[in-house]
User: What shape does this take?
Amino acid sequence: MTASTERDRQKRAAAMWAAEAIEDGMVVGLGSGTTADMAIEVLAARVAKGLRIVGIPTSERTAALARNLGLPLTDFAAHRRIDIAIDGADQVKRSTLELIKGHGGALLREKIVASASDRMIVVVDETKLVDQLGGKTPLPVEIANFGWQTVLDRLAALGCKPVLRLADAKPFVTDGGNYIADCVFGQIPDAAALHDRLSRIVGVIENGLFIGLASTIVVGGNNGVEIMDR
Ligand code: A5P
Assistant: This one.
């Protein structure tokens, strides 16, 4: 088995575990990314067999996938609270269950959905587990497009190397119409402190540090899934 096939198998095992935790009548937060997609596929198959749920998507891409698969969608106008959100992550810190998210660019909606959820189940393969957040993995920060250059300067003053994310040689634009600065901080020993400092920069809309939001991490590994609860 190739490494990528094995990784897909691990991701699918985690996604299946999370999708099986969803019960009839629930409002479900639908995450973004390849692992969340797998959970959405399992949920849609369960809906086809009679499970009654509604989903709130964390991205336009996820909304399109859910619609194509026949998974009914709703929004915050109809439901203020979500029972369970299922989403992926780019890094998970073992000891604290703090996350880095946003490599897919959906971090703002993902964080709004996670914050409105009674429970957030994070689905990852074992390559996402780390002892310390950051390292070479950049922290995505969603920023206003007006004056983005000044925001990058302020981010750099925090000690990182911010790079404006591009797509097809133009700035990548999020579903909310904003830009993303990918910030390499190196090791992030105190995620809460960094989160606060980022939040104080005018023009920063949200950052990819998810602190105190994940309830359960489902890690797909060689020998099935490992469950880490907060
Ligand atoms: C999307 O913005 C991200 O937060 C994703 O949840 C994250 O990139 C995980 O994606 P994969 O499951 O594709 O690795």
The pocket of arabinose-5-phosphate is lined by residues 31-35, 87-90, 101-107, 110 (CB under 6 Å). The two ends are 33 Å apart (CA to CA). The first strand starts at residue 27 and ends at 30.
